[in-house]
Here is the input.
Amino acid sequence: MVKDVLKKPTGFYEKFERKPTGSQYTTHYCPGCGHGKIHKIIAEALEDLEIGDNTIFVSPVGCSVFAYYYINAGNIQSAHGRAAAVGTGLSRSNPDSIVISYQGDGDLAAIGTGETIHAANRGENMTVIFVNNAIYGMTGGQMAPTTMEGQITTTTPRGRDPDDQGYPIRMCEMIGTLEAPVFVERVSVTDSKGIRNARKAIRKALQSQKDGQGYSFVEVLSPCPVGWKMSSPDAVKWVKDVMEEYFPVENFKDLIKERPPKPKPKPLASSDEIIKVLGLTGEEKLFDADPEFLENFPEQRLRIAGFGGQGVLMAGTTLCMLGMNKDLSTCWLPSYGPAIRGGTANCHVVLSNSSIGSPVVDKPNVLIAMNLPSLDSFEDIVTPGGLIIVNSSIVERKVKRDDVESLYIPMTRIAEDQGLRRASNMVALTAYISYTKLMSIDELIILFEANFKKKELIRKNVEIIRATHQYIQNM
Ligand SMILES: Cc1ncc(C[n+]2csc(CCOP(=O)(O)OP(=O)(O)O)c2C)c(N)n1
Ligand code: SF4
Here is the structure.
């Protein structure tokens, strides 16, 4: 009689559909890589602890980038180093879920160090699996913070020199000093004993999270034969002889028996509470919602672009405030280079009468180009039939496309004529509202008067709004 049936754990997908053809039963990891072993330990734990259905697996950038093709759980890909932040959001908004943050050493101990330490210090309810392979594997073997002293990498061709590049960072030791974490252990996936211990540690961490105790951190020393340019057996030996010497394989903290479950995260403040904290009455709406206006409002996806200092970002936020007052859904996404004043800046703005899928406006139906680089950069991405509003005071050329509507407004001159050159953003905004007749200019004036304090500034801006409106009327 067959007693044991060997099968793939349900924590893995039955088929790995990374590639549409070819083997759908193998991973992309190099032979001898530790990632595969660690994935298997996690996949088995998901099945045995019966948590597969409510686990969210966060994989950031690194060789584990395709983990979502293998691990049968909810999967989220985060940006490089940002898994701790994403994990925080996930576990707080889904307090009954198990959140596993699976990160390489470049990811966790370099670009994501700050977030990692603070998530640990807050005791976020998540399990971090930290794969320490002493190198940036995915990008071809650059030095990581955990690279060993003397180790040759593509960025330390003479070997890591602590006088130049510092010493390898011991993350478990650092995190073990913090109060909040429940369980911190370093393991190593080299021989069968090491793998058994890794299995135990990962299960303990996940069980602890299942029991609501908070933050666990398991560091796994893991071979990267390709990045280290070694054979698999030599890589395993190097982990044992070199890495384990500097990174002791041991437990640094285990409060699992004594730590009571953490209280569930408090619900976010209600809108009544926010209104109270802000000292508002709740009646601040400037306009009554108009069902007909909402019903007929065509979605506006704008890019407002210009030099830093021209107020393009503020034009976007003002437009959003105007939209919010009309009960529209709005969002605003700024984008600017390091040199804010004088550099280029632009913002993405969406106004819609239904929910907004993405704040990114890659195909705007309105472009406000306040300088030439903005027109050059964004003219082509405006959707056919869209509108391009150009600051003709400083943009000498015309719009090249003939499948969009173009409007040329001397924004800088109109602002200057009213004695406030830097308010060309108000000209741009007024021109857009006045020309499209989406909202009334009075609404913009009332909003301005309600939100800005300096009387002189309000007066000048109101004059600019009126002058621009007049300019559009006379066109
Ligand atoms: C913001 C950002 N910076 C840099 C990169 C390039 N990048 C991709 S993977 C990687 C290194 C990953 O190394 P590690 O976290 O150690 O994981 P491993 O590949 O070794 O498993 C880098 C630097 C990126 N994708 N995003
Ligand atoms: S480069 Fe290294 S970490 Fe990446 S898959 Fe290959 S062996 Fe694994």
User: Anything to note?
Assistant: The CA atoms of residues 88 and 241 lie 36 Å apart.
